[in-house]
Amino acid sequence: MARLDWYIRANLKPRHLQLLVALDELRNLGKVAASLNITQPAVSLALSELEKGLGFKLFDRTARGVQPNVYGECLIRQARVMLNTLAQTRDELRALLSGASGRAALGAMPAMTSALVPHALAALKRVSPTTTVHVQEGSMDTLLPQLRRGHLDVLVGRLSSWPSADFEEAPLFEGSSMVVVGRQHPLAGASSLHWRDLAPYPWILPPVASLPREPLEAVFQEHDIAMPSDYIETLSVPVIATYLQSTRAVGLLSRVAARHYSDLGMLAILPLELPGLLRPIGLTWSKQRALSPASERLMRCLREVSAEFGPPPTPFGRPPGGDAGGPAEPDPPHPGSA
User: Closest by alpha carbon to 257, among 245, 269, 248?
Assistant: First the structure.
C-alpha cells in the first residue's frame, strides 16, 4: 500500500492519465499510438511501466485489443475526473487572465431553457458581468454522463428517483405539467373545464414511456376517456409551442414552459389539474468535484429565480438532496456595474 501511495503521489503524470483514457476509448494499441502521435512500442512501454509502478495489471491483452480490468476501470474513471479538473483549471485561469470572473458549464432540460435558465443567466450577469457560462441542452439521460465525466458542472432538470453515490441534488420546485392550447383555440379563456371537453381535439402527446405520459394516461382512464387517435408525439418544447399556435391541438408543457409561453401571449393554460406524479425539478452536481465560485454563483441565481416558477416540492419518497455551499457572500461589485 505504501508503494502504491508513493507512486500515485510522486510518479503518476498527466501523460499517464491521457494514455489510460485513450486506451479505454480505443481499446487498440495501434490506434492509441496514432491518436497520441507516438509509436506503438512507446505505448506498450508506457503501459508496462505504469502497471509495474502501480504493482498490478490494468488491462487484459486479448486478440481483439486491450480490455480494462476492475483496477483499470477504477483508474480510468478517476483519470477522466483529474483530466477534466485540469482542463477546468486551465479554462478558469484563462478566463481570469482575460478579465472574466470564472467559468461555469450548465446542462439543462429543454423545458428549463425557455425561461428559467435565461432568467437565471440574466440575474447572474447583473451580479457578476464577467462570469462566463456554457449552456448545453439535452435530456437528463444525455446530460448525466457529461456531468459524471466533468464536462458539465451542474444540471437543472428533473431529479432522479433515488439517491446516487455520484451526484448531489437540491430540489427547486414541483415538476408538474400543465395543459395548454393556442390562443386561437375554442377552449382558450374558459374559466372551468372537464377532461371530457378535450375529447374532440387532436393532441400532442408525450412519447410512450416518457415521464409525463403516465400521469396523463391515468387521468384519461380515471375519467373514462379514450386515448386520442389524432395525435403526434414529442417532448420538444419549441415544436409543441409552435404546433399549438397553428392548430386546434391540445398539449402538455412543464409549468415553467407553460407560464413562459402564456406570459408571451402565445399559448393559453387550461384550468385542468394533473396529478402530481412527476419528480421535482432541481439542481444536480457531482460529489467528486468541488464547485468553482462561478458554478456556485450560477446555482444561487437558479435558486433565486426558481421561486417565480412554482412552489417548493413536497417530500417525494426519498431523502432530499443536499445543498451546495449554503449562504454565500455576495460577489464584489464589478467596476463599471451598478
Answer: 269
**For residues 240 and 246, what is the distance between their CA atoms, to the nearest angstrom?**
10
What is the per-residue pLDDT across 56-78, written as a single tens digit (0 to 9) for each?
A: 999 998 888 899 999 999 999 88
In which residue are the cell numbers 466533468 written? 150
Which grid coordinates belong to 248?
Answer: 386546434
Distance CA 338, CA 324 (A): 27
Distance in angstroms (rounded) separating the CA atoms of residues 271 and 269: 7
Other residues' Cβ atoms within 10 Å of the Cβ of residue 71: 15
Residues 16-55: tens digit of each pLDDT: 999 999 999 999 988 999 998 899 999 999 999 999 988 8
Tell me the C-alpha distance between 101 and 67, whole Å: 42
- Report yes or no: 267 and 257 within 8 Å, Cβ to Cβ: no
Q: From the CB of residue 126, how many other CB atoms can be counted at a distance below 10 Å?
A: 13
H or E stretch at 127: helix 116-127
In sequence order, which residues have a C-beta less than 8 Å from that of residue 324 and are 6 or more positions away? 168, 170, 283, 285, 291, 296, 299
DSSP letters along 222-290, please?
Answer: HTT-PPPSSEEE---HHHHHHHHHTSS-EEEEEHHHHHHHHHTTSEEE-S----S-SPPEEEEEESSSP
Q: How far apart are CA 25 and CA 75, in angstroms?
A: 14
Q: What is the pLDDT of residues 87-141, one digit of tens each?
A: 777 777 776 666 556 889 999 998 899 889 999 999 999 998 888 899 999 988 8
**Cell (9 digits) for 91:** 479554462
267-297 pLDDT per residue, tens: 999 999 876 657 889 999 998 888 888 899 9
Question: φ and ψ at 290, to 5 degrees?
Answer: -70, 140
Residue 244 has pLDDT above 60, yes or no: yes
Backbone angles phi, psi at 4, to 5 degrees: -65, -45
Tell me the C-alpha distance between 48 and 36, whole Å: 17
Q: Give the pLDDT score at 100.
A: 57
